[in-house]
Write a structure and sequence with these properties.
The protein has five domains: 182 residues, 3-Layer(aba) Sandwich (Rossmann fold), CATH 3.40.50; 68 residues, no CATH class; 204 residues, P-loop containing nucleotide triphosphate hydrolases (Rossmann fold, 3-Layer(aba) Sandwich); 65 residues; 70 residues, DNA polymerase, domain 1 (Orthogonal Bundle). The chain is 49% helix and 10% strand. α5 packs across α10. The longest helix is centred in the middle third of the chain and has 22 residues. The radius of gyration is 29 Å and the shape is globular. It starts with a helix and ends with a helix. This is DNA 3'-5' helicase. InterPro entries: DExx_box_DNA_helicase_dom_sf, DNA_helicase_UvrD-like_C, DNA_helicase_UvrD/REP, HRDC-like_sf, HRDC_dom, HRDC_dom_sf, P-loop_NTPase, UvrD-like_ATP-bd. Keywords: ATP-binding, Helicase, Hydrolase, Isomerase, Nucleotide-binding.
């Protein structure tokens, strides 16, 4: 056997049967349907390396295309390790921009327009020309919609009709207004001799389509194409790929229809699903062996896709290659605060068993859901990182709201209003309304952040009868300080979208109730099914431990009107199934004395109804309160910032004798231990 032959066989021997089938399919057209965790990157990099080692491919004639710079870098690194370092692995935009920079001056005789990374400044000018008032959130939503239109080959003139047909909306703006902004933006861009990221693809396609010499040169350069994540290809990217191919079919595409979660941004899975129709003679291969997750997790993911109205026909049925693990947990909660508390407790338990925070993720549908989890993890001293978004108190709309609330508290301008009404008034002045805006986007995300602040105010009022606006602002400042601690190895908080392509040992899919998953504005069959796929992506991020949670109400004490997501119906045990009248048997916090449901947040913290006789040492409780008052005066903070009454009651009940026992009490986190632990233990020991 030749040296090349032995290298090729060594490459193939490292693959499973289906992966090997991919690697040996060196001539196109080839379609690979690769389920989550099935080793698709391994399969396609071995295919390219096998082609290089057998002499079928010249490395410089291969173009591997993916969607993110990170994925392209991973492809290049793996190909170098497999002995194929000369292969080009790039994103669509990177490959197109490289060609455009070379050919544009030769074709047009002018300099290439400068590339802008942000549309916002030009959009701001475009909207001003139209007399339209647009804040940063609306500008970002308009930018996203223009991006969708351009990658979908939809121009300003056609936008109103097509947007209407597809149910697209930008905040409360009529489609005709969006079209005018789109047209004005294009005018501004041309005047400034600039191009945006979508223009990179459009201009490259234009050069290739209009100049045969350029097209021939590009086609001589690249003879073999591999495209990863093909379910995310847009009409514009598909058109550019066709121009690169020039009628050839030496193309291998890889994707998973069950992970199509970017249709709102222009992705069109039909290019993957209909690939054999476009390319007769296609060899279609399925990767179904899941190496990431336990059989229990894989079984739940398969059942999710196979649910009523599900997309089993579009995806593959995974088969786990891992040893059996524990059952997937499905846990309902009375409200979002209780849900976050449960998740944080489970994270702490995983840590005690040896799972590092960096191998744990809490995933949810929208960024605003992170706040309760940030709070609960901070209370327990568990480090965390927010992926794909700023931490809650770092978000611009939250920072501005806290500044305005602080100003209102100091000025006394709202002193004639009940303080809760004052909070709502300040938020209302920024654009918050009791009802959420329609549609998705930055406007909706900003509303969710304001709504979270309104909810915090309601919870604070419930726990503190004598609270005022200044006390609430102090509490917000405390939360912000505790949540901004650096985290080198922290629990990941991320949306399902931001989690795609990642994996962890333990995953919590949280907030999985109807109205959130699927989201309320998913009002068509296609958008509802995309929400199902989004949950599928979240669940398949877990290697060993998967927990799915939901809450029956947003706030403590509210009526339990929410149901677990309709997608969970085939997965839930009978005790958690929705009941007649729409409510689910959710896990309810109950009194340790009489087992009745607990209503307020304070009752839940104490673990008993407020009308029960106290079990704590009332004398010790009074001494702790006296110490707290003195410490609060010294620190110039409200007393509840030191400890709430509910926490002092628990200390007086359990009488902790050391730091470990004190840390186990609800409401006593590392920051509290550091500031007050020694003093509290001294008060307790003096009493005993």
């Amino acid at each position: 056997m030749t040296n090349h032959g032995s290298q090729a066989e060594a490459l193939l021997s490292a693959l499973d049967p289906e992966q090997r089938q991919v690697a040996e399919a060196l001539r196109g057209p080839v379609r690979v349907l690769a389920g989550a965790g099935t080793g698709k990157t391994r399969a396609i990099t071995h295919r390219i390396a096998h082609g290089v080692h057998t002499g079928v491919y010249a490395p410089t004639e291969v173009l591997a295309v993916t969607f993110t710079t990170r994925a392209a870098g991973e492809l290049r690194q793996r190909l170098r390790q497999l002995g194929a370092p000369g292969v080009q692995a790039r994103t669509f935009h990177s490959a197109a921009l490289r060609q455009l920079r070379y050919f544009w001056p030769h074709v047009h005789g002018t300099e290439l327009p400068s590339l802008t990374e942000s549309k916002l400044a030009m959009l701001a000018l475009a909207t001003r020309r139209l007399g339209l008032r647009a804040d940063q959130a609306l500008l970002r939503d308009l930018a996203s919609e223009i991006e969708w239109a351009k990658v979908s080959n939809v121009g300003p003139d056609d936008y109103p009709l097509i947007a209407g047909r597809q149910g697209r909306a930008v905040s409360d703006q009529p489609p005709e207004t969006v079209a005018k902004v789109f047209s004005s933006y294009e005018d501004v861009k041309r005047e400034q001799h600039r191009m945006d990221m979508e223009d990179v693809l459009l201009f490259t396609a234009g050069v290739l389509a209009s100049d045969e010499r350029v097209a021939a040169q590009v086609r001589r350069q690249y003879k073999w194409f591999v495209v990863d994540e093909f379910q995310d290809v847009s009409p514009l990217q598909s058109a550019l790929l066709d121009l690169w191919l020039g009628g050839r079919d030496e193309l291998c595409v890889v994707g998973d229809p069950a992970q199509t979660i970017y249709s709102f941004a222009g992705a069109d899975a039909s290019y993957l699903l209909d690939f054999p129709k476009r390319y007769p003679g296609t060899q279609s291969i399925e990767l179904v062996r899941n190496y990431r997750s336990t059989p229990q997790i894989v079984s739940s993911a398969n059942a999710l896709l196979a649910g009523v109205g599900g997309s089993r026909s579009a995806g593959v049925e995974l088969r786990s290659q891992q040893p059996a693990g524990q059952a997937v947990r499905f846990v309902g909660h009375p409200d979002e605060v209780a849900e976050a508390s449960y998740v944080a407790d489970q994270v702490a338990a995983l840590q005690r068993k040896g799972t590092s925070p960096g191998q744990i993720a809490v995933l949810f549908r929208i960024n605003a859901q992170s706040e309760h989890f940030e709070d609960a993890l901070s209370d327990r001293g568990i480090p965390y990182v927010v992926r794909g978004a700023a931490r809650f108190f770092e978000r611009p709309e939250v920072r501005e709201a806290v500044v305005r609330l602080r100003g209102a508290a100091r000025s006394g301008e709202v002193s004639d209003l009940p303080w809760l009404e004052a909070v709502r008034g300040v938020l209302g002045g920024m654009g918050w309304t009791a009802e959420p805006p329609t549609g998705r986007g930055q406007v909706r995300d900003r509303w969710e952040s304001w709504q979270a602040l309104a909810t915090q105010a309601e919870e604070f009022a419930t726990e503190h009868d004598d609270a005022d606006l200044a006390a609430f602002v102090d509490d917000l400042d405390r939360r912000a300080a505790e949540q901004h601690a650096p985290a080198a190895d922290g629990v990941t908080l991320a949306t399902f979208h931001a989690a795609k392509g990642l994996e962890w040992d333990a995953v919590f899919c949280a907030g999985v109730q109807d109205g959130t998953v699927p989201i309320t504005y998913a009002d068509r069959d296609a958008t509802v099914e995309e929400e199902r796929r989004l949950l599928y992506v979240g669940m398949t991020r877990a290697r060993r431990d998967l927990t799915v949670t939901w809450s029956a109400a947003r706030n403590p004490g509210q009526a339990a009107r929410r149901q677990p997501s309709r997608f969970l119906t085939p997965l839930l045990p009978e005790r958690e199934q929705p009941q007649p009248g729409g409510r689910a048997r959710s896990k309810v916090a109950r009194c340790r004395e009489c087992s009745q449901p607990l209503g307020t947040a304070a009752e839940k913290k104490r673990g008993r109804c407020s009308h029960h006789p106290v079990r704590y040492d009332e004398g010790l409780f009074e001494r702790l309160k006296a110490w707290r008052l003195e410490r609060a005066r010294d620190d110039e903070v409200p007393a509840y910032v030191v400890f709430t009454d509910a926490t002092l009651e628990l200390i007086a009940e359990h009488k902790p004798g050391d730091e470990r026992a004190l840390r186990a009490i609800n409401g006593v986190g590392p920051s509290k231990i550091e500031r007050y632990g020694e003093d509290v233990l001294a008060v307790v020991s003096a009493d005993t």
